[in-house]
Write a structure and sequence with these properties.
Number of strands of chain A: 2
CATH architecture of the largest domain in chain A: Orthogonal Bundle
Helix content of chain B: 25-40%
Helix content of chain A: over 70%
CATH class of chain B: Alpha Beta
Bound molecules: adenosine-5'-triphosphate, magnesium ion
Distance between the termini of chain A: 33 Å
Strand content of chain A: under 5%
CATH class of the largest domain in chain A: Mainly Alpha
Shape of chain B: globular
Strand content of chain B: 25-35%
Number of helices of chain A: 13
Largest interface: A-B, 20 and 28 residues
Strand order of the largest sheet of chain B: 6-7-8-3-9-10
CATH superfamily of the largest domain in chain A: MetI-like
Number of strands of chain B: 10
CATH topology of chain B: Rossmann fold
Shape of chain A: flat
Oligomer: heterodimer
CATH topology of the largest domain in chain A: MetI-like fold
Strand order of the largest sheet of chain A: 1-2
Structural class of chain A: mainly alpha
């Protein structure tokens, strides 16, 4: 049987129908990914080639007071990464806690219900979280921050909480599956030494799940980076490199900016937005690549 | 120093299923006691009740009592976690903590008890425990490398070192050599024999040569039928059990005749 690369020509020509179908669909996905990349590059060209004078013709580029395209993109990149990282910092400990609770502490019935709720939450569309953010979380936070910052607090801090809530279910459900698979041998090793449940978790479960938790976190991060609706609804936009997460009108993310400007953009404007989209594409690609790497090195260690 | 164990009328249940019925025996201190018997007769189940490890299994319960030097392990004021610190366990397959170094593995149990260990104290414990497990010379140059990089036999001796680092009075071993090659098995058997001067050791084994090589006393368990509870049939000096058992079932088992 001749095997060339991933294809098995012998099977292909024997018209194994299922094999044909599988090959065709994976090829299809690859072609689409390639087409998207080409399309993005192609439509980003006009903006990349345009002079500063040309770009100044775009009203929102002009009002951004950027000196060049890079100067325009970087504050967006900064806010995108800041809000997502903050969301991850909030979401990861919560997710680990919930996953541990479900796996090791909750009585079986409660664990089953909690698991089910988590899986449901993971499938709720993001606009629902956005609306929850503006109608429930904002007024709630306003009670505490009313006199200190804008009311309602449409700031990066609020956004990060909403993003965190949004990615907690997916991270939790992945981590839960990993913790559930902790080898019995490792668990007994800890208990056999006289570990309490919490000590057993520290000795056996957390080290076993560390790499998986890391790659779950990266997947969550990828989601937060690309989130659009919640940003659009919650954040009052601005451009700065400010770490003041309570600062009003000082942040805007890439996805939020695209959604906000797209309806009014002329063709060069669309091209400029595409450039920012391309940057986001690269960032998420890097994050996913890191997630895969971490996941792989985990398997190698087991 | 090893401690004496008295088991009195012990029944073990998994839910409603009675797995072990009415075991009474005395396990002598500073000796090796072997448990033998056909598969499914409840050797592991019974062994795990001696340090209350069975409580890690859902629905496993016991009736009766086990006295460690006169103290009932099942009385209400006894903390099962404390029991497991005094009664160590070695499992069928070597299970060092995979992400830890050799040194960290030896110290894993100690650190639960004693958080503020000085480096000198820790080094001392690592060295004596590894020496106690006949492993020190083989690994002294790579104490900080990963434990899973060792051979199976070395890993099992590391698990024994990890257990004796806790200075237990009793060591329970459930088929500790069944995953090892003959050479490693001999190394572990020698070790068990040496350890018996300081610890009370209980070992479950399917290998009758092993039982006669390492143990002073042997207990034979049997099961009358599938779904019936396992029972202690006979317990005596190992030499007596293997040369001249008093019970016909024991005789049949050791001579390879079943039923
Ligand atoms: N976790 C469990 N839940 C329910 N029943 C169990 C459990 N573990 C063991 N049993 C049952 O208890 C009985 C005794 O099992 P045990 O593992 O103690 O036998 P064993 O003598 O150690 O056998 P082997 O020599 O094969 O290891 C068997 O009938 C077994 O099916
Ligand atoms: Mg067994």
């Amino acid at each position: 049987m001749s095997k060339i690369g991933i294809f098995n020509w012998h099977r292909l020509f024997k018209t194994d129908k299922f094999y044909l179908l599988v090959c065709a669909s994976s090829l299809f996905v690859l072609i689409i990914l390639f087409a998207i990349t080409v399309f993005l590059l192609f439509s980003a060209m006009p903006a990349l080639e345009s002079s500063q004078t040309g770009l100044l013709g775009i009203s929102w580029y002009k009002s951004s007071e950027a000196n060049n395209i890079l100067d325009f993109c970087l504050p967006l990149v900064f806010s995108t990464i800041l809000s997502s990282l903050l969301a991850l910092v909030i979401a990861l400990p919560v997710s680990i806690g919930v996953a541990l609770f479900i796996t090791f502490y909750a009585p079986p019935k409660l664990a089953a219900i909690a698991s089910w709720v988590i899986d449901i939450l993971a499938s709720i569309p993001s606009i629902v979280y956005g609306l929850w953010g503006i109608f429930v979380l904002c007024p709630f936070l306003n009670v505490f921050t009313g006199n200190l910052i804008s009311s309602p607090p449409r700031v990066l801090f609020t956004l990060s909480i909403v993003l965190a809530v949004m990615i907690i279910p997916i991270i939790t459900s992945i981590i839960r599956d990993i913790y559930t698979g902790t080898p019995h041998l490792d668990i007994e090793a800890a208990y056999g030494l006289g570990a309490t449940k919490w000590e057993m978790i520290r000795l056996s479960v957390l080290p076993y799940g560390a790499q998986g938790a890391m790659s779950a976190a990266m997947l969550g991060l990828g989601r937060a980076l690309g989130e659009t609706m919640a940003v659009l609804i919650i954040l009052s936009p601005g451009r700065s490199y400010s770490f003041n997460i309570f600062g009003v009108s000082s942040h805007q993310t890439i996805a939020g900016n695209i959604a906000a400007q797209f309806p009014e953009a002329n063709s060069l404007g669309v091209s400029l937005l595409t450039v920012t989209g391309l940057v986001l594409f690269i960032i998420t690609f890097l994050v996913n690549w890191a997630a895969k790497k971490i996941a792989k090195s985990g398997v190698a260690n087991v | 120093m090893g401690q004496r164990i008295d088991v009195e009328h012990l029944d073990v249940f998994y839910g409603k299923f009675m797995a072990v019925e009415n075991v009474s025996m005395t396990i002598n201190p500073n000796q090796v006691t072997a448990f033998i018997g056909p598969s499914g007769c409840g050797k592991s189940t019974f062994l795990r009740t001696i340090n209350r490890m069975h409580e890690m299994t859902d629905k496993a319960t016991v009736k009766g009592s086990i006295l460690l030097e006169g103290r009932n392990l099942y009385s209400s004021e006894i903390d099962p976690v404390q029991v497991r610190r005094e009664v160590g366990m070695v499992f069928q397959r070597p299970n060092p903590f995979p992400t830890m170094s050799i040194r960290q593995n030896v110290l894993a149990g100690i650190k639960l008890n004693n958080k503020s260990l000085t480096k000198a104290q820790a080094d001392e414990i690592v060295e004596t425990s590894l020496k106690g497990a006949n492993l020190f010379n083989e690994v002294k140059d790579r104490l900080d490398s990963a434990a899973i990089g060792m051979s199976g036999g070395q890993q099992q001796r590391l698990c024994i070192a990890r257990a004796i680092a806790m200075k237990p009075s009793v060591l329970l071993m459930d088929e500790p050599c069944s995953a090892l090659d003959p050479i490693s098995t001999l190394a572990v058997e020698d070790l068990i024999y040496e350890l018996s001067s300081n610890y009370t050791i209980v070992i479950v084994t399917h290998n009758m040569q092993q039982a006669s090589r390492v143990s002073q006393r042997t207990a034979f368990f049997n099961i009358s039928d599938v779904g019936k509870p396992g029972r202690l049939i006979e317990m005596d000096q190992t030499t007596k059990i293997f040369s001249n058992p008093s019970n016909q079932q024991t005789e049949n088992y050791i001579s390879g005749k079943f039923g």
